[in-house]
User: Which sequence fits this backbone?
């Protein structure tokens, strides 16, 4: 483009010169305009990219862990920060609280053995004291476990000849199949160690050989566990029936390795019963297989897994503990966004109200109505950031009727922690013993563990209860 100085240097410029100069100037302006528009678009794209990178950076700086999501503690990359736990300070001192019943060792009135410690020589003058009658001064007791010796019970049959000439012979009990076999007490203990304490078969062999002086092989242990599961199966079905007719229960599922493949353990449990099932599927057909009609008279507590939310029942309750952990995550990523903070505070208020509600409050409760109104207001105003927080918001809107169900039924818990405890045993079993080597072994664990957990909920002694079968059903 020609400069104004160059134009002025031309004496008497012609019309054609001015026209050409103007055309060059207009072309230059057009090019600059296009360049500006291109730079403006690049700037807008850069702003969007910067915003996206900031969000990704926040996610990177605040990864999901067991405190802000459903990820188990075993998946945490680093030690969890103390201020991210859902458990808040109570203001109480550490240790036992007033009214707590301890388990202090107590002396028995009739000891099994008495060892007397008598002074023989005076420690002052050295005089012999053996002829002097001793006077009791004090006692202390020590608890010892004597060497364990197995009891061999021999069953014998005899013959008698009748006057008619017929020789009659006594018969062995039906459960005696071999010349030598392990009794029910051994089978119960093997199964107790396997399902309750997660011992691998190899270590069980060591314990029975070194502690109980009973030689046993891994194959025999597998057979005894199978026999115990068969014995408990009728009570396993009874537990299933109790859960099916419950008015409030929880459900959960977790993955497990079964013979090298991905399988799934499921649990449905209520206050007094735990039913555990195993399948290679995580689909709706598993629930239909065990509870075809669902739970028409119950409130079902669960996470947001679609199979549980689609289960036919009287009502649903989403686990508030899960939601609080997710809200912690969003608060970390979007510290300036008030929406997740307000929803978390609302859930906390609802939990506080639940803890102080009397039976009559469930019929009419103005505080509950106020919390529900606040929830409606929050869910009518979506949070600004898009992505995972918006997806969470949409999930809350979709399941709004399942958020405060626990405020309408006294028997309904706000969280699904009991189901998580019921299914966590599968993970512990795998960590200690490794994968389940067969579907039959996994099913045996599900049966035995269901009965054991039910006995625990009823405050029954496990081994004692197992030994009383079939007279003690887990009702």
Assistant:
């Amino acid at each position: 483009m020609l400069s104004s100085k160059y134009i002025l240097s031309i004496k008497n410029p012609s019309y054609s010169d001015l026209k050409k100069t103007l055309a060059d100037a207009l072309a230059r302006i057009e090019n600059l305009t296009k360049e500006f528009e291109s730079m403006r678009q690049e700037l807008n794209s850069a702003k969007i990219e910067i915003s996206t990178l900031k969000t990704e950076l926040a996610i990177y700086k605040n990864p999901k862990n067991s405190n802000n999501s459903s990820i188990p503690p075993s998946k945490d990359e680093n030690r969890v920060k103390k201020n991210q736990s859902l458990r808040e300070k109570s203001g109480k001192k550490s240790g036992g609280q007033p009214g707590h019943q301890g388990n202090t060792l107590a002396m028995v009135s009739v000891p099994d053995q008495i060892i007397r410690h008598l002074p023989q020589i005076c420690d002052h003058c050295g005089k012999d004291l053996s002829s002097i009658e001793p006077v009791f001064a004090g006692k202390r007791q020590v608890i010892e476990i004597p060497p364990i010796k197995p009891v061999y019970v021999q069953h014998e049959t005899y013959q008698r000849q009748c006057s008619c000439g017929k020789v009659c012979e006594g018969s062995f009990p039906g459960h005696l199949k071999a010349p030598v076999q392990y009794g029910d007490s051994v089978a119960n203990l093997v199964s107790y160690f396997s399902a309750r304490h997660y011992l691998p078969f190899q270590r069980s062999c060591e314990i029975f050989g070194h502690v109980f002086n009973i030689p046993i092989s891994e194959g025999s242990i597998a057979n005894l566990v199978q026999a115990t599961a068969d014995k408990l199966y009728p009570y396993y079905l009874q537990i299933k029936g109790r859960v099916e007719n419950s008015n409030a229960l929880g459900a959960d599922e977790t993955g497990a390795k079964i013979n090298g493949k991905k399988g799934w353990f499921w649990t449905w449990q209520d206050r007094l019963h735990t039913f555990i099932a195993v399948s290679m599927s995580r689909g709706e057909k598993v629930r239909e297989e065990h509870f075809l009609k669902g739970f028409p008279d119950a409130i079902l507590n669960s996470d947001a897994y679609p199979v549980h939310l689609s289960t036919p029942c009287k009502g649903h309750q989403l686990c508030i503990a899960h939601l609080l952990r997710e809200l912690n995550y969003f608060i970390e990523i979007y510290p300036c966004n008030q929406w997740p903070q307000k929803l978390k505070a609302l859930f906390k208020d609802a939990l506080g109200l639940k803890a102080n509600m009397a039976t009559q409050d469930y019929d009419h409760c103005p505080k509950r109505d106020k919390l529900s109104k606040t929830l409606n207001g929050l869910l009518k105003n979506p949070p600004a950031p898009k992505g995972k927080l918006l997806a969470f918001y949409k999930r809350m809107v979709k399941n709004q009727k399942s958020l405060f169900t626990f405020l309408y039924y006294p028997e309904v818990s706000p969280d699904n922690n009991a189901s998580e405890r019921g299914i966590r045993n599968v993970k512990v079993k795998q960590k200690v013993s490794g994968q389940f080597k067969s579907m039959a072994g996994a099913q045996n664990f599900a049966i035995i563990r269901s009965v054991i957990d039910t006995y625990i909920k009823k405050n029954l002694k496990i081994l004692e209860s197992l030994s009383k079968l079939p007279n003690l059903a887990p009702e």
Q: What stands out?
A: Strands lie at 159-161, 167-169, 248-258, 261-269, 274-279, 295-302, 313-318. The chain has 14 helices and seven strands. The two ends are 98 Å apart (CA to CA). Residues 86 and 421 are 17 Å apart (CA to CA).
